[in-house]
Amino acid sequence: MNPELSVIIPTLNEEDYIGSCLQSLSEQTFRNFEVIVVDSQSEDKTVEIAKSFGAEVISMDRRGPGAARNVGANHAKGEILVFLDADVIASKNLLEEIRKCFEDPRIVGATCKIFSRRKGAKYKFFYKVGYLAMRFSFPFRPGIPGHSAFYRKETFFRVGGFKENLEHSEDLDLSYRISKLGKIKVIKDAFVKVSPRRADKWGFWNLFFRYVKYFVAFQLLGRPIGRYWGR
Predict the structure, then answer these.
(1) Which residues share a beta bridge with 115?
(2) Cα–Cα–Cα angle for 161, 61, 148, rounded to 5 degrees
């Protein structure tokens, strides 16, 4: 029996995070799913850890999350594609709630509530603002973050998947294109927790205002602006 859901995780030197991500998937209440890790030639123990959890590992030479997610989608057996980042921890009911969500044939894409893996007022503020901005975007240009994006496979391929030539905002671009074919939904009874590693690397407020710039520009112009400063 084929899996109903395919979880796709792009990786590049993720040994510090991939274990906790896959552990959260191993504890899911829903069991009929596969895990596909698409690795861009990691030089650490990422692949070893992924295989220890029973994930299918696909190696690719090209870098970039959009390209890796497309590769994973092309190998997926499930009808629902669940894109997660390696530094994400999923609530135990996430896949069950995704399955329930897509029982509605009108749904073509979804995401869920997002929290920080680190406690603190500024991190709570960051994701609260992000959540409100995402909900605000739905009537205009729905912006689903790539670290927790769920799509019906048939619709994903109909719009051509992620645009691999974009340096950033490829996730917003995809959710906007898919939204033209059906309904986008936020799953309120499940969540993911995301690591603060980007804030640690580039500075909290630098990260915050750059994300604001990218999001607002996409809402106003419908396309990414500027160059990304690294992943």
Answers:
(1) 193
(2) 40
What's residue 221's pLDDT? 67
pLDDT in tens, 110-143: 999 999 888 888 778 777 877 777 777 777 778 8
Beta strands in 153-228 (DSSP E): 183-194
Q: Where are the domains of the chain?
A: 5-196
Instruction: Report the C-alpha gap between 125 and 107 in whole angstroms.
Output: 29
Is this model's pTM higher than 0.70 or not?
Answer: yes
Q: Find out whether 4 and 78 touch, Cβ atoms under 8 Å.
A: yes
In terms of phi and psi (left: phi > 0; alpha: psi -120 to 50; beta: otherwise), the region of 37 is: beta
Beta-carbon contacts of residue 218 (< 8 Å; ≥ 6 apart) = 141, 143, 169, 172, 173, 176, 224
Q: Alpha carbon of 146 to those of 51, 124, 221: distances in Å?
A: 23, 19, 20
CA distance 41 to 38: 9
Contact 40, 10 (CB under 8 A): yes
3-class state of residue 63 by DSSP: coil
* Residue indicated by tokens 């309120």: 188
β-strand pairing of 88-90 with 80-84: unpaired
Class of the CATH domain delimited by 5-196? alpha beta
In the chain, what percentage of residues exceed pLDDT 70? 89
